[in-house]
Amino acid sequence: MKIKIPEEMFTEKIWKGFNELGYRVLSSEDGIVVLEGIFSLRITADLAGMKVRRFANLCRKVVVEGGMKVRRGGTLFIEPIRARRITVRLSSDEYQALVKVARERGYTRRNLSSFFRDSLTASLLTRLEMTGRV
């Protein structure tokens, strides 16, 4: 997924969030910073250190390729398009353990796949950090 952000709005705080998730800068020309990465993002006005109007302006100017952006109030969600599916078979005990841990972390049965995906991507990010690819 590629994300394009106007250079004047690409603050140190915003870069820190992208960098922690393994995003890298592909280019910075014509006043646009182009980033590439694979993980979902959530950017808030507070995190960006911006007031509401400036943050809304940032949200309008961000361009996402290979994903989608949605702004809800003071939060911008950027997610890759999810077109691939995998199936995992679990024993009854494994499933119950998964449901229990998901509930403890605020997930419900309805979004159990989100919990599983978030756990999987967190594990992937940790592995990338350990190998120095982030």
Task: Report on this structure.
The protein is α+β, with helices and mostly antiparallel strands. The protein folds into two domains: 2-80; 92-130. 41% of the residues lie in helices and 26% in strands. The chain is globular. The two termini are 16 Å apart. 12% of the residues are buried.
Secondary structure elements and pairings:
Blueprint: E1 2-6, H1 12-20, E2 24-29, E3 32-36, E4 41-44, H2 45-48, H3 52-61, E5 63-65, E6 67-72, E7 75-80, H4 92-104, H5 112-130
Antiparallel strand pairs: 1-3, 1-5, 2-3, 4-7, 6-7
Provide keyphrases for this structure.
single chain; 134 residues; alpha+beta; 2 domains; 4-stranded antiparallel sheet; 3-stranded antiparallel sheet; 5 helices; 41% helix; 26% strand
Q: How would you sum up the global shape? A: globular
Number of helices, counting only DSSP H or I runs of 4 residues or more: 5
Let me know the largest β-sheet.
4 strands, antiparallel
Q: Into how many domains do the coordinates divide? A: 2
Structural class: alpha+beta
**How many strands appear in the DSSP assignment?**
7
Q: Could you give the order of strands across the largest sheet?
A: 2-3-1-5
Mean pLDDT: 89
- The SSE order reads EHEEEHHEEEHH
Brief account:
The chain is of the alpha+beta class and 134 residues long. It has 5 helices and 7 strands.
